[in-house]
Every structure is written in structure tokens, then in C-alpha cells.
Model the fold of this input.
Amino acid sequence: MKIWMIFLTSLLAFNLYASDLKTKNELTTNNIARFDGVLWAISLISDKEAIISIKQGEAYRVDLRNGEKRLLSGLPKIDSRGQGGLLDVAKSPNFDNTPWLYFTYAKPSESGAKTTLARAKLNSTSLTDWQDLLVTNFKSPTFQHYGSRIAFDNKGHVFFSVGDGGIRESAQYLTTHAGKIIRLNLDGSIPTDNPFVRHANIRNEIWSYGHRNPQGLFYDNSTDTLWSNEHGPKGGDEINLIRPGANYGWPIVSYGKEYANSASIGEGEQKEGIDNPAKVFIPSIAPSSLLRYQGLLFSNWNGDFLSTALALRHLNKIKVETDGSTTETRYLENMNERLRSVAQDSEGALYIGTDSGKLFKVTLNLGSTFAQ
Done:
């Protein structure tokens, strides 16, 4: 409870709008491998190997030392129309003992596609024992806003994010998984301490709701807190501290505007009973993944949030200052790439995937005087 109070108090002091914005080019990128398709997710199964998901419906086992890539077999049918496809991949917290990989993907159906959480065992280059743990109960008629990232709390639970499917009001309906963050046990069963588990008319899997299209999800084990970032409409991308049972407002409130005419959405930016974001990006950067850095390589970044950005094409770093304000620094803008995914190895190096199918390793420019 004390940790929660510290975080909630600090969030009240955050500057939600313009932060101190800086741009830096002190990082070195090395191209590890290239793929034919959008590199949607990176899961480091060790500092030497990664599992890569490609939106169009393929997954690879990649040697990070030499770029050798091997196609995985055993994937199901995947609907890659629009924003759907093979989405996130994440190794289980118990991967070294039982090699489960968790996936989210757009599962085909007659009238649309459904965001689905699944798992399978990795056996060399084969996926075996495929299990759909939760097929969400809505279809996206427009093939957009599927989410979807995966996170673990190392206490036997898996979280995954689900977008609103392009149907705004669904994010507020507690009978559907659309616009929600879901919490399950690792085997797909429902935890008995989920916030709505005793409500017969509410989906018991729901952990939080009122989300538009959350494509970043990170569990901070050092503070036992769950964080997400999500796409706003025209402006209004957010970083949120996720609390059980909390409503994040979409589409009742939003810092974003209508695409067509820049009109306000819903009832404004804030409303009593709705959690405010920790950070708002105006204009939108289009955040696509999220982690909270802890490592030796960029030691001055410890505790800072890192997000890849699609629309504004950079690696975004948010530093929370001691007074609760934020400093935003943008890296890798000179690459001019839509950055889709980010992962960190045990030494603190970063791996970034792009929509053009490139996998980069990111380290420190040895010639720089790194201070941010």
C-alpha cells in the first residue's frame, strides 16, 4: 500500500503537457538482421538469442551475435489485415524450466478478427502444444486497434492489453474485452483476486478499462507496478500507471481531438472517478512499446521510461524529475524509421525492431559524453 501511495502522490505532480524536450544522437546502432515485414515484437530468450514476431504471420529464432535467423513452425492461422496479425511474443517467467512462449495475435473469424492470447512450447524451431488461453469476445469490423502487449508480474500472472477494435464506446462496456487490460493466471484461468471476479455481469478477466489502443505494457518488479502506453486519436497519447479496477476514460475523456475537425472528444480532458495519465504527448508520437530501464550501460537512465515511436520516428525517453515533472528526450531521429518494439538485455543494451523489418542493437556512442 505504501508503494501505491508514493506513486499516486507523484503522479499528481506530473506535468501532463509540454515537458522539457531534448533531442540527442549519442547512441550507436548495429543492424543485426532484416526481415520481410513489420517487426512487431522482440522477446530475448537469452543475451544471445531472441524470438521475433512479424506482423504478417511469421516468427523467427534469431542469433543476436551473427544475425542468423530460423523460421519457427507451428503457428496457427492469423488474420493480418489492417492492424491485425501476429502481435506480441514474450517468454514465460519460468522459461528456463518450461519453455513457454506467450503470443497475442488476430484470430480469424467470419466477420472480423479477435485479439487472442496464446502460448506454445519452444522446441528448437518448432512451436508445440499450442493453446489459445483467451479468445476475446469481440471482433474488429475495421481491422484496427487490436492492442496488444504482454507483461508478467513474476507472481504467476500474465497481463495483456486489448484495443477498442475501432468501436469507441466498447472500451467502457464491462461485458466485453475491448479497450481493456486483462489479467490471467499463466495457464489462462482467472485469478480469484481480480477486481471484478465477484461480478456476474462483468468479464472477470478485466484488470482495467477505458483504453483506446494500448500497445505498450510493462510490469516493474522493483515497485510492483504495471504501466502502459496507448495511442490517443489526434494528440493525447498516454503513459498510465495501471491500477486494478480503474477506468482510464476513453472515450468519455481524452486529451486528443477528432481527426476530422480537431473538436474535443467526450466531456473534456478530466473527470472525477477517471484516472489521469502520468504523461500525455501532444502532438502524438504514436507509442508502440514500453519498458522502464534498469541497467549498467545507460546508468543515468535507470528508472526512466523508454518507448518506441511510430509517427514521430524516434526512441522516446521520459525522465521523472524529483519534483514530479518530466523531461522528454528523443533519440535515433536520424534513422527516420517507424520504431515498433524495444527490448533490453541483462547488460543494458537495447534491441529495437522497425516497421521496415530491421532489428538493431543499440549501445552507447563511445565518442560521446553521455549525460542523459
